[in-house]
Design brief:
L-amino peptidase D-ALA esterase/amidase; 404 residues; globular; Ubiquitin-like (UB roll); 15 strands; homodimer; 6-stranded mixed beta sheet; 9-stranded mixed beta sheet; alpha+beta
């Protein structure tokens, strides 16, 4: 498996584009994106579990009932959520997209991201779609990734190449963060494309299985968005024998999918609103998988630990505290904690109690951009990782005046 | 029922004091407090549910097994938690306190608050106790309240006077916040005293029942502390007939207790680390009490809403979002939301969708120091309130370098 360029256009038969259509006041910021497969593709998606669901998600869910889609349209700048006419607007977006591409509205995945509770004017979207469609290219992944960004500071795309029964396949994705990030059995906006041939049931199985260990293990601020969605389109143009059961090809596909999703998770966490550091909590020695996941997520979600990481302060007591209130039945007296980064590794807690360590070395390790919080529960063999970021002045600044 | 001065010394037979004994480097900051009843008192306490429990809580729990206590000793500057010799140190604190007062160590409630995981040197505590005990007075509540403060900027005390079967009784308390505040079936450090006569069983019942609607409904940062504890001492010196069942006097006592605890909750939330505003989410129209509590707490815990409140931004979509991910089965299409303060009330959402409102008026309302977020679920008669604070630059600053 190797990384390749091209994002959502890396796989055969996919084109993309992103333009400024006029939803945002800033004309230099793209606000409408389109991803299209040249043939109808097998499609799977997972959605937020928030009871307040964006209108686009409800429309997409209906469109994906048959497991087939050919295009993804997404605007930024407005979430089209908690609006009386939200469904109507999302349907109009689908119709305008279908018309511009000459496909059925039922084969369009529609998504929106931005402020909640402000009516979305569909006029600039409908007006912009012909130009958006006309500009579709095999080099359009970056433009599409830019068009879905909100407070993101980095565009997020990745792709890998792998082999199924001798056929070269590719899978790639784009994503946006970067606030209201605390996916729960669902996730933020992620669009993944592949030319692998895979049945709707197996694609759904692959995606659902993957998100529990990837997007559901990311948290920026503990707020589960109303508009989270991950969608995979698989158009089968790689020519591999269709995956219809859990064979070796399925395992390979799962590894490729996981490579893409973990890379996007790290990008989303590292570019969390206001973030200066990517945090990864790696839990080992857990008695069961659920405990490993819960402990990792609890640590990554602690506001106090996140603030300490911003200050490069090795305040490991906050790691123990977050494990203690996680709701798991861990044996505190067996917990070991270390901090690690490119600058080295430093043990700070053994058997639930502090150990002497060099504050200077700890500061050097925690001053890096990517920090690992290593927790060993010494109670079994299960492991899990969760991703987050530090809590900074800029998170407060961004969210103190996001809407106005 | 009327408010009176005196805090934990308002009730008959209680004295208190607070001194600087040398745990903290800053000599102007008191770091050791003592509260004493002139006779043994009925005692009840609730503790954090965090699996990582401070050593003082374990010692206190053992001491209160018989439902009797006469003194409370508490240091700030060090939590005495995650230390190998924590129990030993907490026992030594009890013994030194008992010796200075001429009582049994088993009648001492011991508490600590501050950094986790750094050994607590008991020497300055033992050395300071004779002077601390010698300085006990009926005017000592403020000194005691100061001695338990960590990042608190305001001392927290309150007392009320009420009548039980014709006898005048008083109940008062002191508390400390102000970070790692997200009590779960337990709470932060709160010490309450009363001269009412009440049986151990009924005192425990009153406290346990009260905390579900008071301290458990406060959140500053979502982090449940390892050292949370609420203790009530009732010495019976008011001379009222002992409360031994749920009679009218018990109901009056509950109201008095609740007046004290709600006042302390508001002080703790309003003085949360870095806070500039006190937030109260008042939920009405809930189908059941659990839903009302969960919704109120979910709203008050949202980092995004807290940051918006810091910016006086009426971003009500974040209120809906937090209700949606709270895990309750609410009907989103029935939710109404308003913001209120001393400057007025403004409806912002009706039936789950936005309503037109004056941004100028909303800004004026949200610029006050105490903000109410009014949520009506229109699905029943149950209500609940939760208290929190805004998320500010100073929260990040305080916690980015708390330990160093």
């Amino acid at each position: 498996m190797k990384k390749v360029n091209g994002g959502v256009c890396a796989a055969k038969g996919f084109k993309a584009n992103g333009i400024h259509c006029g939803i945002r006041k800033n004309r230099t910021k793209r606000d409408l994106s389109l991803i299209v497969s040249e043939v109808p593709a097998t499609a799977a998606a997972v959605y937020t579990t928030n009871l307040v669901k964006g209108a686009p998600l409800l429309v997409t869910k209906a469109h994906l009932a048959n497991g087939v889609a050919q295009a993804i349209v997404c605007n930024s700048g407005n979430a089209n959520t908690c609006n009386e006419n939200g469904i109507e607007v999302a349907e109009k977006m689908s119709e305008a997209t279908a018309k511009a591409l000459g496909i059925s509205p039922d084969d369009v995945v529609v998504a929106s991201t931005g402020v909640i509770g402000q009516p979305l004017d569909v006029t600039p979207i409908v007006a912009g779609l012909p130009a958006l469609a006309a500009g579709l290219t095999e080099n359009g992944s970056q433009a599409a990734a830019e068009g879905i960004m909100t407070t993101d500071t980095q565009l997020k795309e990745v792709a890998v190449e792998f082999t199924l029964s001798g056929k070269t396949c590719r899978i790639g994705g784009i994503a946006k963060g970067s606030g209201m990030i605390h996916p729960n059995l669902a996730t933020m906006l992620v669009f993944i494309t592949t030319d692998a041939k895979i049945s709707p049931a197996m694609l759904k199985k692959a995606l659902s299985s993957d998100v529990s260990d990837t997007f559901n293990m990311v948290s920026v601020d503990g707020d589960t968005s109303t508009n989270d969605m991950v969608t995979v389109l698989a158009n089968g143009l790689a020519g591999n024998p269709e995956i219809t059961c859990e064979n070796e090809d399925f395992a390979t596909f799962m590894r490729a999918l996981n490579t893409v999703t973990v890379a996007l998770c790290r990008m989303i966490a590292g570019d969390g609103e206001g973030a200066t550091r990517l945090l990864e909590c790696r839990v080992s020695g857990a008695a069961d998988k659920a405990t490993a996941r819960t402990v990792a997520k609890s640590v990554i979600c602690s506001s106090l630990l996140k603030a300490a990481m911003f200050g490069a302060d090795a305040n490991w007591g906050r790691v123990l505290c977050a494990i203690g209130y996680s709701g798991t039945a861990v044996d505190v007296s067996k917990i070991d904690v270390s901090f690690a980064s490119a600058a080295g590794t430093i043990p700070v807690c053994r058997n639930g109690c502090g150990v002497d360590f060099s504050e200077e070395k700890a500061k050097a390790i925690l001053s890096e951009k990517e920090i690992e919080i290593l927790v060993c529960l010494n109670s079994g063999d299960e492991t899990s990782s969760a991703w987050g970021c530090d809590l900074t002045y800029d998170y407060v600044k961004i969210n103190g005046d996001y809407r106005t």
